[in-house]
Structure formats: C-alpha cells, structure tokens
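Example record

Each entry pairs one chain with its bound ligand, heme C.
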Amino acid sequence: MKILAAGVIALLSLAVLLDANQAGEKAKYTISEVMVKAHKEGLLKTVASGKASEAQRKELAELYKALSQNTPPKGDAENWKKMTGALAKASAAAAKGDEGAAKSLAKLANCKVCHDKHRED
Ligand code: HEC
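Structure tokens for the complex follow.
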C-alpha cells in the first residue's frame, strides 16, 4: 500500500511538472538558435531600440517563448523559468506594440547573469 501511494504521488508530481512546462510542448528553437538569432544577430537590440518592424517583434517573442520551453545545460530550473519567463512576457507585450516592454528587454536579457548561472563553461 505504501509503495502504491508513493507511485501515485510520483505520478502526480510528474503531471504537475509537465503542466508547468506547458504540457510538454516542444520548443521550436534550441537555446543556441535563440542566442544566435536574438543576441548575436542583434534582433534584441533592434526591438529594444524601438525601431523594429512588427514582424521582427513577433519573431523575438517566438524566440523567447522557445527559450523558456528549453531546459538549460545547468543551474536552477526555477531561476531559468523566472528569467526566461520575464523575457517571454515582455517580448510578447512588445510584439503587440508595448514600447515600454520593448525597452525593458535590454535590462531583462542580462547576458552575464544568465550565462554565469546557466551556461556550461
Ligand atoms: C536567460 C538566460 C540567458 C540570457 C539572458 C542570455 N543567454 Fe546567451 N546563452 C544562454 C545559455 C544557457 C547558453 C548555452 C547554450 C548551450 O550550450 O546549449 C547561451 C549561449 C550563448 C551563445 C553561444 C550560442 C551558440 O551556441 O553558438 C551566445 C553567442 C550568447 N549566449 C550570447 C548572449 C548575449 C549576447 C546575451 C545578452 C544580450 C545573452 N546570450 C543572454 C543563456 C542566456
């Protein structure tokens, strides 16, 4: 009976985890792809400067949504969710024309803080 209960609890926690991770929806881009497109090629800067087209703002929102659905190579999952969730939320608002949210992205995408915590050296 104890074993059964433990099994049920394990299954329930797994279900909660999967749900938190948007029910296993697979990320459209890998972390590397997001880094290259959004950060190396300068999409983030364009959007944060307020000069991006609607298509560019939407692309960044897609990239950050995918980022939040990825699992980082290292570091605390909660912190990853917090950092990437903030990026996904602000970029989604920016895609809809919220200029304040677009500007806030430059601060939210803190390269060093995130790399120190989540990037493998
Ligand atoms: C929310 C976390 C996070 C933020 C913010 C972040 N990065 Fe990254 N970045 C990562 C992780 C994790 C990797 C390692 C990916 C891997 O090894 O799969 C990475 C890798 C990279 C890479 C290597 C990509 C490759 O594989 O070719 C570049 C370039 C990069 N980041 C640039 C930046 C720049 C520039 C910024 C700031 C504008 C930034 N990143 C902000 C998490 C982040």
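The mean pLDDT is 89.
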